[in-house]
Amino acid sequence: MTELAVEGADMGTLHHLDDHRPAPTGAGPVDLTKTAPAPDPAQDEAPVVKAPVSRWVRSGRAIRRAATHERTRTAGRLTVRHGMYIVGGGRIVARRTWEGRTAARYERMLRAAEAAGNLDLATEWEERGARFRAARHQRRMDLLTAPVKAAKGAAAGAGVTAGGLLLLGIFLAIANKDFTDLATPTMALIELVRWIVLIISVVWGPLVTLGPWAAVLGLWAVGRHQKAAPQWALPARDRSGEGAPITPSIVVTAMRDLGVSTLKKAIKEMGDVGAQMLSPIVIAGCGVEVDVHLPSGVSTEEIQNRRRKLAENLNRHEHEVFITIPPSPRTVRLWIADSGALDEPIGPSPLVTDPDVSANYKTGRAPWGQDLRGDAALVSLFQRMLLITGLSNQGKTASLRALALWLAFDPKVEFRIGDLKGVGDWAMFDGLATVLIQGPTDDHVLKVTEMVEDAAQEMNRRLQSPGEDFEPLVVIVDEAQVAYGSGAVDKNKIPLGGAKATSRYFRAIKAIHDQGRAVNVTTWEGTQDPTNENLPKRSREGNHIRSSLVLGTESQARMAIGDAAIDGGAAPHKLRQGLDKGTVVVAGDGIKLAPGQTSVTVRTHYIDTDQAAEIADRAKAARTGVTTLHVVERDDERDPLADIATVLGSDARVRTQEVITRLTALDEDTYSGWSFIDLKRVLDDAGAEPYKSDGRMVVARDRVTAALANRDGDGSASASE
What's the predicted TM-score (pTM) here? Predict the structure, then answer.
């Protein structure tokens, strides 16, 4: 019936019963039987079947996940921590008991006092130890006669007790008129003893059971109080150790756990467990300082190379521990900061807070900042070349500018400043400096080079005028790496930058380094990322004061402040980029160093641009009007080819060396540094090349004259028609 009804149904309104989609229009019965879909050719390929994972592999993965899970690790730390509390507590109690029964404590303190050089304290501990031994000897001698005394005492006690009980019984018998009361006190005592024995017999079992657990609990409490567990197993609040004071035991433990087997063995063999290695720990600024005398077989380099591990053993960050080498052999000096102290600012510069500040180039010292001990870091700038290096944006310009701002209060000092960054960091010196050039282009490099060359010429003039008292001239070039790295050449094809002797900038700086100090002409350079290209060796080694902010590598640090300072413990490459801005490591002359030290770390005062402008205005008020040039005024440029023709005169041929000598006599400032290469370049460009005659290089007058005629003809109006 159902099938007939379905066949007679309207095909236009019939729906498939399987998926409820509209049926196609048209006559014919509807097949209600589901049919398999047509095969898809794209699915004819066999599916990829993954190989079954072994049960052992699955089990191993599950075990690994369980073992490395945070809950498992937490439970492991908890188990180890409380277990070590018991072990450590037992060790501490045993040590206390041993020290209480022996003279070990007095011996240890005596050796520590002798190691520290405190003879008075050593004598006191020696006397205490002697008194302890005498008292212990007397106790032991008393033990020999103790049994006899105990027996006599027991007999006397028994007699007195028996007599007392009998007397008490007599009193009771008389009072009660009962003769049997004579034994009542004695029987009462016996009954008391019976009850005591009964109580002990009842309580003894639980005491025997609970006693060991109580002892373990006591050891656990001692170990927990002393944190006698590995650092990694302690809770986070105890594991950090921040702010913990530095004690001799902490320093010795930190040295022992450095991983130097010879050092660890030597400490264990020392009678005082390493205390003799340490000098007294003294407060030094925002931290403490201690000298550690290393045992034989341990080098200072091994300790320096483990600075990070040593800091972690002391519960400090790496930047909070400084290792230097004092004069004593096989000794390292540790300066350990209070936790977080180096992240605190040091306060404003005296230039900002003191409106009456003054400066003296010859006798004064610039207030640059504070050393790690908290003492003022004062720098003498008298006749000293200065170099400061560091990575970009670490406070190099501000540190260099702070020294110049102080020196600006001495009206006798003349500044010539080249800022090859050109963003206004030195703009406040407009009106203080006689020359101020700001900008990063090749044109600015040329102007700065001419400024330095002009200072070198002034130096030569002073050197040729002995006996005069010359005013200080300080030439400052910030971002000097731009000048050293410049590939620009002047119109005579002479390079401005580079580290070769042909570089105009390098040659001028080197000339001042060689002789400028004698006539009060000095250079200050600030440069980034010191390399042989950015800072040539002959230039960096000509500075009296070499300082560096944070650097990326040890090789850069050696270029910046020298091998001696790095070997002595200086580590500007260990400073934190971005966090230790303004912190400089200073080596060389001009700043106070501890005896035997080759460097000092200084946290410089930060003076921002607005404060610098206000300080500069105060310095300007102490000077008469200073006109600041933004380009070096130089005489008319010489024409080398015309000058060569002049010095040749009527000679047909002149040796090249003689030509250079005549040119120097003609204009020493221009030609004093000329070599055969410079002469040949000018002649080759003009087509008047020197040649050999009788085995010597000569310059021909007719060639030079022809070259001049051709050049003048090419440049004339008639020649262009």
Answer: 0.57
